[in-house]
């Protein structure tokens, strides 16, 4: 894409009421726009990143047998009354609204109820199990405070998968599979080293759930981590009892701030009992379906990446989710020599299928470099009167700052090999 | 995809309260699920179709220079008060909700206000124009009645593009370009022949807007069409005055029922004046930006396709939006001969990149054929003991019912050539 085409521009300052580092950088670089506290629009560069995060998650969900759907935001009160969660004191983040005839509706904060009701149409026999259904959908949560940028929104995209299994063994196998899929997602997004599978509070049907917590001072959670064993426990359940039940001692555990980037939860038969989601087992008996729920917020992940992988100049995207793989920065001379050269180079690279953002604006070199640092595309090629004279391209790594002179063929070879 | 993997099943009956043909067929075939009147979830087959409709629209929007964003559903009251449209008597389809501190919020019915406010950050000079910004976003409209299935929802996906131009000439050129892009979209989706560019009521800044109306008895609109000239006029403005201003006579116009599948609208400076969205022109003077808005509902289009392209047996998808291109129906014998053969064929075809739904279920032939007719994949290959014996594949066209015997190589060649 030509940068002159892009409608967004970088800004020196973020809105004054914005306190989070991720939103400040993303707003300044033109990736998102703040509508209200906790409510952000995604602009072209931001949407490209978000879609790539979604793409990585979708691949991994499909790999473990997920089937994609899109449920609705408008929610039937009756469905939620079935589990007693319509009450604002039980679920305290409801946004509610009304039809013209005063019928109350909720805006989906999560979709266990709706999907369990739906699956009654499709699950009748053990032959219909297991099923794994997921969606990327906008959730609405009426948070009292929303100060963490896109890490905690009132309106945000969420991937939620729900599993429907015939017995505990089959459920446990899938639960473990999902845990591994989640670990692959965080590794692919460059957060693997700092993300811990964390014991957290369970529910009626499981002693613990598992959270994926990424260590960062921008997080709102606290976890205890043992770096040697890689075991982590959410502060909420970091008790002598928990340690004992896990066969661990307090020694070695250090408290850290973190953000919950994913969670997986065994639901047992809580929802299937409430809705009567039963099936006829192979022995002819009627049994309730065993369920699990598995969440990841792509926007929160994007915010977490920005918090962790940025420096004083701006963002440094991992290649896999970068809005473009290469930033071609042309420093124009007074004649059109550099422009003609850079236009042709841009065309060749895009024709080869490379995702290139081409800074073809008339701005001065300093401004272009500052903007490129802020936007954070991982690799950069600089073209100027000087590089053309030397018959080279100047190649720069955004993360290390390292600069090398290479040929166009070398550039193609290098970019083809890059994976991070 | 293996049909045994798909969690949905076909049904004999649609819900009793469903009156529209499109929703009845789509529910029976397992494409959508009714949550509430006018509120439908998209299941795996339905989501595949919807995403393909979106893909066609996205391509055409990118071709005319659109840049994709995603704005938010939660809307700031203040922004809407700027144009006087917060009032329920002015905009009568609001869903409204509240933050915990009682701050009122609206759920986006359309996004002129929000985007105009946003663009103030990015448009300052004639150098920043023109800009074309679009999104695919869920709209919420509190319709009193919602009886047309996915053709009129209370929650539905919408592509809305907004244009920002420096002068009337530049606006008019883009308006015309969009008109052509819209015509290409409807042609690609198989609705070209029945879809008319229709004069409809304008606003303060233009005498007429243009609607794209597809003739169908399932539509809620009425238009007058002259088949010879291909001119159409919405009944709302079919007056002597309109005919005179267009230099037409009443003769030849016939009233027809239709559905509005798209609309394009010149907004003039209504929104830019309200928000102070001005720019410095090349002559140094300050001018308001000229705007336009351009809508298409992918779900409504999908519903319209079902209304028009179905028969008594079920849906007949145009190839471009079919959930799969080919339906492989295997009629299993008592040994595993047919299964082994069909499994291998399915694997070869999918490895060649063909989108195949493989009916590998144990159901009887009659049930499989009835399901295939209902689901409506345009081309079908039947594999049985008999076809294996004859060393052929039975190839069936869903639309014409025509059946031919062909080889696997012939199948590959035919499918590669098919465009509709």
Set down the secondary structure blueprint.
The structure is a homodimer of 420-residue chains.
Chain A: H1 21-28, E1 32-36, E2 39-42, H2 44-63, E3 67-68, E4 74-76, H3 77-81, E5 96-98, E6 104-107, H4 112-119, E7 131-140, E8 155-165, H5 168-188, E9 195-203, E10 206-215, E11 221-226, E12 231-234, H6 240-245, E13 253-268, H7 270-275, E14 278-280, E15 286-288, E16 290-296, H8 298-308, E17 310-311, E18 314-315, E19 326-330, H9 337-351, E20 356-359, H10 365-375, E21 379-383, H11 385-390, E22 393-397, E23 403-406, H12 408-417
Parallel strand pairs in A: 3-7, 9-12, 19-20, 19-21
Antiparallel strand pairs in A: 1-2, 4-6, 5-6, 7-8, 8-16, 9-10, 10-13, 11-12, 11-13, 13-16, 14-15, 17-18, 21-22, 22-23
Helix pairs in contact in A: 1-8, 2-5, 2-8
Number of helices of chain A: 12
Could you report the average pLDDT of chain A, rounded to the nearest whole number?
96
Q: Which chain pair shows the most residues in contact?
A: A-B, 51 and 51 residues
The structural class of chain A is alpha+beta
Would you identify the CATH H-level superfamily of the largest domain in chain A?
Bira Bifunctional Protein, Domain 2
The main sheet of chain A orders its strands as 9-10-13-11-12
- Total strand count of chain A, please? 23
Helix amount of chain A: 25-40%
- How many structural domains can be distinguished in the coordinates of chain A? 2
For this structure, the CATH topology of the largest domain in chain A is BirA Bifunctional Protein, domain 2
Q: Biggest sheet of chain A, open or closed, and with what strands and sense?
A: 5 strands, mixed, barrel
- What does the overall shape of chain A look like? elongated
Radius of gyration of chain A: 25 Å
Q: Please identify the oligomeric state.
A: homodimer
Reading off the top of the CATH hierarchy, the class of the largest domain in chain A is best stated as Alpha Beta
Distance between the termini of chain A: 21 Å
């Amino acid at each position: 894409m030509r940068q002159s085409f892009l409608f967004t521009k970088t800004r020196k300052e973020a809105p004054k009421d914005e306190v989070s580092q991720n939103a400040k950088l993303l707003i300044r670089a033109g990736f998102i726009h703040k509508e209200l506290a906790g409510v952000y629009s995604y602009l072209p560069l931001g949407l490209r990143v978000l879609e790539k995060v979604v793409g990585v998650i979708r691949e991994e969900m499909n790999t473990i047998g997920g089937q994609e759907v899109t449920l609705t935001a408008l929610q039937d009160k009756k469905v939620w009354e079935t589990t007693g969660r319509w009450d604002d004191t039980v679920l305290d983040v409801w946004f509610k609204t009304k039809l013209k005839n005063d019928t109350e509706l909720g805006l989906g904060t999560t979709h266990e109820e709706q999907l369990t009701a739906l699956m009654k149409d499709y699950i009748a026999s053990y032959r219909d199990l297991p099923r794994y259904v997921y969606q990327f959908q906008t959730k609405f949560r009426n948070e009292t405070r929303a100060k963490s940028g896109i890490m905690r929104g009132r309106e945000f995209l969420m991937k939620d998968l729900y599993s429907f299994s015939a017995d505990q063994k089959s459920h446990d196998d899938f639960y473990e599979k999902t845990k591994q899929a989640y670990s692959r997602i965080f590794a692919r997004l460059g957060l693997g080293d700092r993300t811990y599978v964390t014991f957290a509070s369970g529910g009626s049907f499981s002693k613990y759930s598992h959270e994926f917590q990424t260590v960062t001072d921008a997080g709102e959670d606290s976890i205890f981590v043992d770096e040697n064993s890689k075991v982590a426990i959410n502060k909420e359940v970091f008790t002598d009892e928990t340690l004992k039940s896990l066969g661990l001692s307090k020694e070695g555990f250090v408290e850290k701030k973190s953000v919950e980037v994913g969670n997986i939860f065994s639901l047992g038969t809580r929802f299937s009992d409430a809705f009567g989601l039963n099936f006829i087992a192979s022995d002819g008996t009627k049994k309730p379906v065993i369920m699990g729920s598995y969440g990841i917020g792509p926007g929160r992940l994007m915010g977490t990446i920005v918090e962790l992988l940025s420096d004083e100049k701006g963002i440094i995207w991992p290649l896999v989710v970068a809005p473009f793989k290469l930033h071609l920065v042309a420093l124009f001379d007074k004649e059109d020599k550099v422009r003609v050269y850079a236009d042709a180079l841009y065309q060749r690279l895009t024709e080869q299928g490379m995702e290139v953002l081409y800074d073809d604006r008339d701005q001065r070199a300093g401004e272009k470099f500052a903007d490129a640092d802020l936007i954070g595309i991982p690799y950069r090629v600089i073209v100027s009167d000087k590089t053309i004279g030397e018959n080279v391209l100047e190649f720069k790594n955004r993360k290390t700052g390292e600069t090398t002179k290479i040929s166009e063929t070398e550039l193609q070879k290098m970019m083809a090999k890059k994976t991070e």
